[in-house]
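Hey,

Quick one before I head out. I ran the complex with 1-O-phosphono-alpha-D-ribofuranose overnight. Inputs first:
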Amino acid sequence: MQRIQESELIINKRGAVYHLDLRPEELAHTIITVGDPDRVAVVSKHFDRIEHKRSHREFISHTGVLGKKRLTVISTGIGPDNIDIVMNELDALVNIDLINRTIKPQLTPLNIIRVGTSGALQADIPTDSFVVSTHGLGIDNLLNFYRYEENEEEKQLLQSFVTQTQLNHRISQPYICGSSAHLIKHFVNNFHHGITVTCPGFYGPQGRILRLGLSNPHLIDRLTQFTFGPHRITNFEMETSSIYGLGKLLGHHCLSISAIVANRVTKQFSSDSQAAIEQLIKKTLDEISEW
Ligand code: R1P
Ligand code: URA
């Protein structure tokens, strides 16, 4: 079995993966990811007990127990570049023998659920409502660095997306990945469902104009107007497609759920975004407890 070299997978003196500073026994197999490091405690305050707390850079993690479930909540910080680190290191914790530095013969799937915030791209999805991402459509480019291929339905959706949005190659080579059927079935009532576009930034890449002109000023309208059969784009944010794409390649079950804090069509912003995210956390934990 090929040994993974020290420079490729960095293990610190604690025997923990480098960025997350987690050892295998400090990770549960159901994981909630949040962007904001302060949101970790907002999730773990619902746990019956916390077994491990780790903190390195923007990656704060709490592992504990809620009812019969062992859970880890971890912050990713913002953006797909951080997701590359988080997904690879979470996977290494369960699927690579960190002592022998070899891939384990029996692979372990993780449940990975992002609980984040997002901007709505449809007028009928109000602020403070919740969206479950049926697909992550990435204009962030991360998956283009891996050998990733869409299935037939995804390929058709993507082709239609490129045609309808006229997204040019200098901006992005988009990719798309569906959510886990295993997880999404638990999040139906009181959630909007739709395609989430993942952007490599918050301002220009999400069509926000402050002092700079945009190369594609029609981006928001084109995303809002996109349709493919029953599918439409509901929202955008900065992590979902990278989680879905890497999760699929690595064999994990992934779902992304967002509290809508901004509506980019009606131009409204939540009057209490903290309350909305707290409510989403509570609903998500209630669902997870029932599996
Ligand atoms: C931008 O403000 C951040 O908010 C959204 C975006 O994906 C991006 O990370 O999610 P979080 O609230 O989970 O960080
Ligand atoms: N997060 C984003 O990435 N965009 C928004 O508009 C709101 C939250």
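The chain has a mean pLDDT of 97.

Talk tomorrow,
K.
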